[in-house]
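pasting for ref
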Amino acid sequence: MADPLSAPFADWPDSTFNTLSGWTWVGCYGGYFLQYDALRGFAHGFFTRHWSGRSPAELAGYLSPGVTVHCLRQVHGGAVVMAHGVAPPPWPEADGLISTAGGQSLWVCGADCTPVLMADPETGHVAACHGGWRSLAAGVLSAAVERLMGQGSQPAALKVALGPAISGPCYQVERSVSSKVAAPLHGDGLQRLLATGDLKPDPQHSGEPLRDHLDIRGAAALQLQDLGIPAGAIHICPYCTFKEESLFHSWRRDQRKAVQWSGIVGQAMASGTG
């Protein structure tokens, strides 16, 4: 896949770089970041490794000047907090954030885990979640949707973008991990993951413990559908953080602590919400 960041800025955008259906590279004087087209009513972005060293306090200005910045101390759990209670550092320990007013930018980071950005066009509320396997198993997505519903959102109205993350072929885990990720799914979660191809037993591994290739974004999408969000409103970015070394940090590939940020800005709330 061509690296859009290697192209001269004067040539952007064109069909050479914006080839991902539903996704667009946005160029600015600071670099390029990725957006999901269906969320364009909301300022948002999935940033790359080329933005390393710049914090959300700086990145927020590229999305929308003057917004407040809300982050987390991510702990791979299921806790979700409301943005109005998230003051400047030290950030609270949680893996999901929900907006409570317009102009709040919510941020999560990762280097293989799935950044999950949700938006409700009807209320203006947004959510940002860190979707690693532990947080998915702990119910971070259901907690986020529940908090949004508490502010007037309906799951059927939500739009969700699952950003760049490690792909199934590059993500080998033990069956015990697969089982924990599958546990929140309705019915037989493992069978559902197998049926969709989001879980594939590792053909190169024999013996115990069993090992699988797990598509963490596919598992997240199934969880979101079980929560009432239409499949057509959930879009998975095809970029794999492990494979696209020129674009993304990857813990599995590099074994070092380096992350990319993803953020979304809430809109002013409709009358009667917020």
